[in-house]
Amino acid sequence: MPSPSPDPSAGSGNLAEQLVRLTRRMHRAQKRHLEHLDIAFTPAQSRLLRIVDHYRDTPPRMADLAERLEVVPRAVTTLVDALEANGSVRRVPDPANRRVVRIELTDTGRSTLRALRSARRAAAEEILAPLTAEQREVFGDLLSALVDGPGRHH
Question: Across the chain, where does the E strand assignment appear?
Fold first, then answer.
């Protein structure tokens, strides 16, 4: 009697679990690297800082942030309130329309963002340490293919 063919979705389930575990490990390692700096940011707050920084010349509106984060505007308000309370961002009026509020990074926010990026790089270095240079390159290519989608990497 032939053996049953393996379930192709079983491997995907294991990969999904491994990706979740790797993401959690990355967050824990990043958090450890930030402990000595006394910086406590949630992943959502960190992402909001990166998005605000991405706009550079023209600070984003709350609606822009909600769209980029794919959340309801109220969720952005909560994030911005927390970041404003710790001095990382400030609300500024739009020069063209005083009713529109824009969000910009403060010097503290830029400094925090640099620390967060440094912690992320250190965490990645720690996690990738067991890999050879060649394995890292292959892994980077695979991640690019997954993140960017077909035909958009290199």
Answer: 89-93, 101-105
